[in-house]
Design brief:
Order of helices and strands of chain B: EEEEEE
Shape of chain A: globular
Radius of gyration of chain A: 26 Å
Helix content of chain B: under 10%
Low-confidence stretches of chain B: none
Distance between the termini of chain A: 32 Å
Largest sheet of chain B: 3 strands, antiparallel
Number of helices of chain B: 0
CATH topology of the largest domain in chain B: Ubiquitin Ligase Nedd4, Chain: W
Shape of chain B: elongated
Largest interface: A-B, 40 and 27 residues
Mean pLDDT of chain B: 94
Strand content of chain B: 25-35%
CATH architecture of the largest domain in chain B: Single Sheet
Strand content of chain A: 5-15%
Helix content of chain A: 40-55%
Low-confidence stretches of chain A: none
Mean pLDDT of chain A: 93
Structural class of chain A: alpha/beta
Strand order of the largest sheet of chain A: 8-9-10-21-20-24
Structural class of chain B: mainly beta
Oligomer: heterodimer
Chain lengths: 863, 84
Amino acid sequence: MPQETIKKWKERYFKTKSSADMEFPYWYSREWFENDGEINIVRRAKALKRAFTRLTPSIFPNELIVMGKTRNMRGSYPMPWLSGSYFMAAHDQLYKDALDCGKLSADKLTKFGQGGGNVTKSGNNVISIAGKFGLRKEELPMLMEMVKIWKGKSVEDIGHKYEKLVPQYKQKEAIMKSLVCMFDSGYTIPQGREVMNYYYPLQYGIDGMIDFCQKKINEVAGRPDMDRLYFYKSAILSLEGVKTWILNYAEKAELLSDKEKDSERKRLYAETAERLKWLSSNPPRTFHEALQLCWTFHIAVLNEDCISGMSPGRLGQVLYPWWKKDMASGILNKEKTMELLECMRMKFTELDCFASMGVVGGVLSGNTFNNLSIGGLTKDGQSAANELEMFIIESGMTCATPQPTLTILYNEKLPEEFLLKGVQCVKTGAGYPAWVNDQTAMDFLMRNYGPEGMTTQDARAWAIGGCLETSPGAWMPLKLDGKTHWIPGGSAGATSVGVHFISTPKILELVLFNGMDKRTGLEVFKDHDYKLKTYEEVWLAFKDYFSQAVDVLCLCNNVQHDAWRKITPPIINSALKPDCLEKGKDIGQKGSRFNATFNIEVCGGINFVNSLASLKKNVFEEKNFTLEEMKDAMIQSFGHESKEKADFHSKGERVKNAEQRKWIKIHKLCLDAPKYGNDDFYVDSIFKEWEDWFCAMCGNFISLYDKPMYPCQISVSTHGSMGAATMAAPDGRLSWTTFADGSVSAYPGTDKNGPYALFNSATVWDHSASQNSQLNMKIHPSVVKGREGSKKLLEIIKAYLRKGAFHIQFNVVDSETLKDAQKHPEKYRELMVRVAGFTQYWVELGKPIQDEVIARTEYCEIA
Amino acid sequence: MTKEYTCRDCENLITIDVLEGLCVIDKKVNSIDKKACDKFKFAKKCKFCLHYSSIEEFLGKCKNKTLIYPDLSAKDCKDFKLTT
């Protein structure tokens, strides 16, 4: 159980709604438009400074770590300078324009959870935006004014104007409308999927950082490469904004202390005020101060852009020097440590990201992906696990919340006690920690960032950014009390921007129908001219269409990200990331140490592979039916009514229509075809061929930063939305239903030979060739009961990762509980499940994802 | 207290979300649309300022020049003058 104060905080959180407000956007926009003609990055810094300065501070009772993105507990706000299309009322011409170019296709096919903190309907003076965020009706007219003011000037609009100059642009529109691709990243979530670096504020404090920039200005003013001058000036302005923001909270804490009658609370408010005043200028002296400063900079970065997946990284190792010192001096004890860590969990859980419905609902499921990594290796290659990380795991059990999720960077050098603690946490059903392979990640990093000078030591500083994005790090020399501690932190910008989710089953569907999307009636690709008389021709046509899609999406997203870095350059995040301050360049100008950070993401790979196996066997080898018959069966969804009639979005009971008997035989043959996840060479060899080809082809495409791109294989929640746009498939999956989750998870119910067979199938390819792979397993709680159960669970984790696999995570839950939770959500406000790289409250998930989690294979034995 | 004011216009309120807030006087979580009590104290908002003029519902101008909205916090505004 959490501490009593945290318990009350959590109860309050459960009643709190996701709330948007206009304070930050108003002041940002006002300052921006008052500075027409200013150097762009300085203009942005002035806008940021004014917005931070004018944010209303709220401090809630029991908070030992204070400050939030906005005055609301689950606060966030729109950023019309990034994007405005999804705010538009349905009658607005701007909205229609956005629909016409396919920008809102994902929004239309997205379903939010109907419970928890989601504001799904307007009412009580509150407007529901995108079925998720509540905005006071009194602030709506200003939102619409802001959207109009930014029209034609936002990243979305400028990017759109120039992406149209890409010769194949029309094809991109069709790709987006048909949901071959999930979303553009340049104006939706341009930053994130990366790891924070807290080193500079921790080492130098805000005043020290400002002094550093001022000295640099003296060095570079009037010298060639003048952009450095503007960057340093911008960094100073932004840091001054953050400083005032902190002081405003200090003032609020003083005010609350003055008004407070209870002596204990009065003392806490006064201490908070003193702590904040100190941190507004100076580096931290204690663990408590260091944790507060990390949190402050974390949300400062989140406030400067629309960001998901800004991970704290290896926070337990960053803060360890202060913790060790305070424990030794008696300032801190175990109880106080736990209370602070539980406070931290609540603060991270309060975070919301205001992006479009398609992104927040269809991709993120309302999650913000603040992933805290533990374990891994030190700079000199020893186990990096420490006692503070044991407390971090413990707090994840006593205060089970979705954020921050935990990931163990598994290495053979980690102590057994530490690993068993992780297993103990998994068994609680929290869905975390996830387990990732330290060595496989480092192999990927060296392959990808070696050309930029990454060494083996550098590679050891890595952590997960976002849900599962392998992100490069750097070792920073923290000096504390005369000692140097090498602490890890992020050393790159967003590691998952570029081509965001190509649906492989959808591309296969388009291959079979010669480029025509039956759902929308659009021609997405030109006729491929293959007769599809052989399996090899299907493959060739697929490779052709897939490559065309990647090509145009890569080019258009490069344009969008160029608009982003020119209009809204990242300033605060850049001031934190090595080596931006040293170079005088922001992340968008390749100021980071590592810049090969664009990727190509795919979704639905297992359904695609299973479909190829079925086509190969049924159509081309055994000739059980013709390709035309297959296509007819797909159009008819093997004789099943649409998912709306069944209201079940994954594999499960469906309403059969009058024609169903006609398709029974073909459907059975499709379902009986070899399926991935059973250690079956027939289908696994197809899987290997796909992975080998995909991982290699990504390098043929060049990012905005002039680096080869790399593969990323996670589903997040896209398997729900993208499945909803894809007709029935040769693997027997019915129309418009959810794909398999992750990238190496089996399709629900098709892995029948036990976990070790699944592991063999999953590892037929080299996982270090990709930024990640993702395997989710659902295990019945009875299987891992007791000490023996813990050992069994750790054994299978080790067995999988020792095969070179990258990632595994678990839902330890009974499917019957989930079914009951779907029927009676009011009884399950606290229930959390692991989706794909993140844990989320059940009631805040959309039904398609709930259905998919229910349908997943439930392992009742793992031996 | 005058009936047109609600807790959301009170300086003693700490906003929790779009529906509720915490009163720092009685320590209770209330609907922010609840009728204000006798401890009501005006929050510094543009709509309570002498320089505010309405141009349409929920939109106004400061000194007939700058576009603002009535509920915007004027806490840090040096020109704020309470009218009510």
